[in-house]
Design goal:
Layout (H helix, E strand, L loop, with lengths): L1 E6 L7 H14 L4 E5 L4 H5 L2 E3 L29 H11 L4 E6 L1 H12 L4 E5 L15 H22 L2 E6 L6 H10 L3 E3 L7 H13 L5 E5 L11 E3 L9 E2 L2 H13 L3 E5 L11 H19 L5 E6 L2 E6 H6 L6 H8 L4
Helix pairs in contact: 1-9, 5-6, 7-8
The protein binds 6-O-phosphono-beta-D-fructofuranose.
Length: 341
């Protein structure tokens, strides 16, 4: 078989580890051939491909980002997109695709499979918000980076008797905020799933100062005050209908300062959370996903996605994976709340 591989959506540490495992097992065990499509769905749409043999994947296990490039191209938003993909993959002699991506990329993979193009999916997102899999690779790395930042910010905040608001990624799901906040001993953690009362946040901050600690407030970019709305960087929508978030950290710091009279600063971690080498956990998970994805393609299990359930890698229908986002449940948030204030 000749298989096209692509990576779509926001990049994520571990993408290269998946590509390496797919090609190593695909060539070595099954004798398949590979083509790399550039920049997510833009690759098959515009027939932009590159060779993807054993030589092309040497030394990429530890490298962040993706050697194939990524984009948020949505072929179903482009006139004749489906037909163009169909024609291009036939012209390149490609029999099937392995698509590595989050809810948007995998949503397209599901539709393409329904439209007769064979695809196997691999879940990816630092946000860890994909249904049907316990964890996605990239999440552990993002949490580690955010936790290290919180540790460092804690010492400088203590020295200056300031409150520091740390804004982390997470549009609709607060997993990064929850885990890094717990690991870093945050004073308050704010997630998109639970609108927050700014008066209560200011109260926690005051209390922490009274205990002679500098408060660290970890906020997911999609968190909203009870009487407000998401803070947008720009209202412009991408091809999958997402707005660009950003600014809640700055808003919170100003509001905390106004309400408590204590100096407050905001730090936005942004894409630092997505860059650089994956942790050992993410390298292993990504490698296992890659090995199982090529098995699924070899078996012709089209329309499925590999997923982590407990410690096992299983196959689940793409439909199940993309049906709804995995958000932070109330009981998990309650565990963190014990440490607030
Ligand atoms: O979906 C992953 C993610 O990192 C989100 O947490 C974030 O909102 C978004 O991508 C930002 O993506 P970009 O700035 O690359 O468009």
């Amino acid at each position: 078989m000749r298989i096209g591989v692509l990576t779509g959506g926001g990049d994520c540490p571990g993408l290269n580890a998946v590509i390496r495992a797919v090609v190593r097992k695909g060539v070595g065990t099954y004798g398949h051939e590979f083509v790399g499509f550039r920049d997510g769905w833009r690759g098959p749409l515009e027939s932009d491909s590159r060779p993807l043999g054993l030589a092309d994947i040497e030394g990429i296990l530890t490298r962040g980002g993706t050697i194939l490039g990524s984009s948020r191209t949505n072929p179903y938003k482009i006139d004749g997109g489906l037909e163009r993909i169909r024609e291009n993959i036939v012209a390149l002699g490609v029999d099937a695709l392995i698509a590595i991506g989050g809810e948007d990329t995998l949503g397209v993979a599901k539709r393409l499979t329904d439209d007769g193009i064979p695809v196997v999916g691999v879940p990816k997102t630092i946000d860890n918000d994909l249904g049907a899999t316990d964890y996605t690779f990239g999440f552990d790395t993002a949490v580690m980076i955010a936790t290290e930042a919180i540790d460092r910010l804690q010492t400088t905040a203590e020295s200056h008797h300031r409150a520091v608001v740390v804004e982390v990624m997470g549009r609709h799901a607060g997993w990064i905020a929850l885990h890094s906040g717990l690991a870093g001993g945050a004073n308050v953690i704010l997630v998109p799933e639970r609108p927050f009362d700014i008066g209560q946040v200011a109260e926690h901050v005051r209390h922490r100062f009274e205990q002679q600690y500098a408060p660290i407030i970890v906020v997911a970019e999609g968190a909203v005050p009870t009487d407000g709305a998401e803070v947008l960087h720009s209202g412009e929508l991408d091809a999958f209908g997402h707005v660009r978030l950003g600014g809640i950290g700055q808003w919170l710091a100003a509001e905390i300062e106004r309400r408590t009279g204590r100096e407050s600063r905001a730090v936005v971690l942004g894409h630092v959370q997505r860059g650089g080498t994956p942790t050992a956990y993410d390298r292993v998970l990504a490698t296992r996903f890659g090995l199982h994805a090529i098995d699924a393609a070899h078996d012709g299990a089209w329309g499925t996605m590999v997923a982590l359930v407990g410690t096992d890698i299983v196959r689940v229908p793409l439909e199940e994976a993309t049906r709804e986002l995995k958000t932070v449940p109330a009981d998990r948030y309650a565990e963190a709340e014990v440490f607030f204030g």
